[in-house]
């Protein structure tokens, strides 16, 4: 009789534990690298999207809440020389809530991206709110303009000594794992000098934003 009762008891226990186990498996880590330092994947921490008719502010918003993007360069690889070539790059425009609008990067000469930039420093950085909870919350597909993405085009250059500390603090705060990357890779701090900006946040094509309009925005 006891053995017969054991089966239903196990089923009940499994039913009670299942939701907790699923939550444990799918819950995001607290911040990048498991640290609580400004993870906008958590809905309660993501600031509200600015009005879509304010394209400069939307652009600054997307840049600031993004932690990574796709950088397109002109390839120096023999198989695709002269063609566009994209790679994922981590970046930061400043501490959470205090962004500068300038995308700072931590690069190594060992990266193909850097080889491309040494021959032609022009690049385009694409950023999307698909990396945050925003699009999932509203049911927007990453390709939908409603999900909001921007394209920042310009040249990538190594930062000078005056900016080095700000770039370092901005990057290491939001990407703490970078501190542990091997020094033998000769990492250096760089930035994208923005010359052109496009914002795609609604149907009808991208909106053009000038660098002046972009940098005149005050984050709130």
Automatic annotation (TrEMBL):
Gene3D superfamilies: Electron Transport, Fmn-binding Protein, Chain A. InterPro entries: CREG, CREG_beta-barrel, Split_barrel_FMN-bd. It comes from the Eukaryota. Residues 1-31 form the signal peptide. It is found in: Secreted. SUPFAM superfamilies: FMN-binding split barrel. Keywords: Glycoprotein, Secreted, Signal. Belongs to the CREG family. This is Cellular repressor of E1A-stimulated genes 1. The gene is Creg1.
């Amino acid at each position: 009789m006891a053995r017969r009762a054991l089966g239903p008891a196990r089923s009940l226990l499994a039913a009670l534990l299942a939701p907790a186990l699923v939550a444990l498996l799918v819950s995001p880590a607290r911040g990048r690298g498991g640290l609580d330092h400004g993870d906008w994947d958590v809905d309660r921490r993501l600031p509200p999207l600015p009005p879509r008719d304010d394209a400069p502010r939307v652009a600054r918003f997307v840049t600031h809440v993004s932690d990574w993007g796709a950088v397109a360069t002109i390839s120096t690889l023999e198989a695709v020389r002269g063609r566009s070539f994209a790679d994922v790059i981590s970046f930061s425009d400043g501490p959470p809530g205090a962004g500068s609008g300038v995308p700072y990067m931590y690069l190594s000469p060992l990266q193909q991206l850097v080889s491309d930039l040494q021959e032609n420093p022009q690049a385009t950085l694409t950023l999307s709110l698909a990396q945050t909870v925003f699009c999932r919350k509203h049911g927007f597909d990453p390709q939908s303009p409603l999900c909001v993405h921007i394209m920042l085009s310009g040249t990538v250059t190594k930062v000078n000594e005056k900016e080095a500390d700000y770039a370092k603090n901005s990057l290491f705060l939001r990407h703490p794992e970078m501190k542990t990357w091997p020094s033998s890779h000769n990492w250096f701090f760089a930035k994208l000098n923005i010359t052109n900006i496009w914002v795609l946040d609604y149907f009808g094509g991208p909106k053009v934003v000038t660098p002046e309009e972009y940098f005149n925005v005050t984050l709130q």
